[in-house]
Design brief:
Blueprint (H helix, E strand, L loop, with lengths): L29 E6 L3 E10 L2 E11 L6 H4 L4 H21 L3 E6 L1 H5 L3 H12 L4 E2 L2 H11 L10 E7 L4 E7 L8 H6 L16 E8 L3 H7 L6 H15 L15 E6 L1 H11 L6 H4 L3 E3 H21 L11 H14 L4 E5 L3 H13 L8
Parallel strand pairs: 1-4, 4-5, 6-9, 9-11
Antiparallel strand pairs: 1-2, 2-3, 6-7, 7-8, 10-11
Length: 370
């Protein structure tokens, strides 16, 4: 006797319908745009606990400061490239309906004689209103972005932001802040380096400096030096000379309890090279701690490659290869000067600082440990 066919056998299975995720409420979104000497970068994010969740981003090398060292002005070609990139940013902001935003320009626009005129041109052609921020604010925002990476054991903190046109250094004393509160004390600097923290224990900004040399401007200073190794040595020496006035503590500091955090494309590229990443992975790079020997090893490998082979090295990338040696010269000078043999790598910067500052000011971040 043949077995009976079960009822419903062979019928098409009913599809399981998963509802499409709801787009976030535009009222909860924040945007931050950083127009630097070399790059235009933007993030659109939503607060999430004590952090934020990135919904959209943009990054493009626009070389706004190209030729600025010689002419003192932004060129028509570089301004046109930048405006085209900013149009894409405007489209993204409109698409997401973002109303809370902070859009800033830094060293190239600060230094250029036609910087303010360019800001007016940007507003007329794209509808975006950018502000040229002062070096102190640029330094403060870089520090805030690194707050989640500050160790609870850190008593003296040096944050270094190597930009395209300038490098900001901020030395902070955390000895009077309870260990658990140290990352939060950094975040509270959004109100200013000398602002009253209220009832909370305060991080003390001992000293800060903005050196008008970044990866693009330092490279331009020594473009006429043909020998690769000689150019690198001169760049490192020249940058170190510019730090002569930055002496937060005359007495030698103990290595224990000292942390240096570096944030820039140079630092993250060196870290990715150290890890041997052929494809960049932020999760592996952000928060990585590198020793001085590891940093030196990577830089020596760059020098051994020479200009032609550096262009073909996938660890460096085509966008970064023209600037990696000037950035490495800055990084090596910094590691020589202060009492540490380790560097904390931060894949974060002005955009993240702008987002944290806006969200902190609005009180939308949870006051929880990082």
């Amino acid at each position: 006797m043949a077995p009976k066919r079960p009822t419903g056998a062979g019928a098409f299975p009913k599809p399981v319908q998963t509802p499409a995720p709801r787009p976030p409420d535009p009222a909860t979104l924040y945007a931050a745009l950083d127009l630097g000497t070399n790059s235009c970068r933007m993030l659109i994010a939503q607060p999430k606990g004590s952090q934020f969740h990135v919904l959209d981003s943009f990054s493009k090398s626009v070389q706004l400061g190209q030729g600025l060292e010689k002419s003192g002005r932004l060129s028509r070609v570089s301004m046109r490239r930048t405006i085209n990139a900013l149009r894409i940013c405007k489209q993204k902001l409109d698409r997401h309906g973002v109303t809370r935003m902070r859009l800033v320009a830094t060293e190239a626009c600060r230094r250029a004689r036609n910087g303010k005129h360019f800001m007016a041109q940007v507003q007329a052609e794209t509808g975006l209103e950018l502000e040229i921020i002062r070096p102190e604010e640029e330094a403060r925002l870089a520090v805030i972005s690194c707050a989640p990476l500050v160790s609870t054991k850190t008593e003296q903190l040096l944050v270094v932001d190597i930009g395209g046109g300038s490098t900001e250094l901020v030395w902070i004393d955390l000895t009077n802040v309870p260990k658990r509160e140290r990352p939060h004390a950094i975040m509270r600097l959004h109100a200013g380096f000398v602002a009253d923290p209220g009832p909370f224990p305060a991080a003390k900004v001992v000293d800060w400096i903005s050196v008008p040399l970044g990866v693009a401007t330092l490279r331009d200073h020594f473009q006429d030096v043909e020998d690769d190794a000689a150019r690198f040595a001169l760049m490192s020496w020249y940058f170190e000379e510019k730090l002569a006035s930055f002496t937060p503590y005359a007495a030698e500091q103990a290595r224990e309890g000292f942390q240096i955090i570096g944030t820039s494309g140079t630092v993250t590229t060196v870290a990715a090279s150290h890890l041997g990443l052929r494809r960049y992975d932020r999760n592996k790079v952000d928060g990585l701690r590198m020793t001085s020997d590891q940093i030196d090893s990577v830089i020596h490998s760059y020098l051994a490659l020479g200009p032609e082979k550096r262009m073909q090295d996938p660890r460096i990338g085509k966008d970064r290869q023209a600037l990696i040696m000037s950035g490495s010269a800055i990084l090596q000078a910094l590691m020589r000067l202060w009492p540490t043999d380790r560097l904390s790598v931060a894949d974060r910067g002005l955009r993240e600082g702008l987002l944290y500052a806006q969200m902190s000011a609005d009180g939308v971040l949870e006051d929880a440990p990082f």
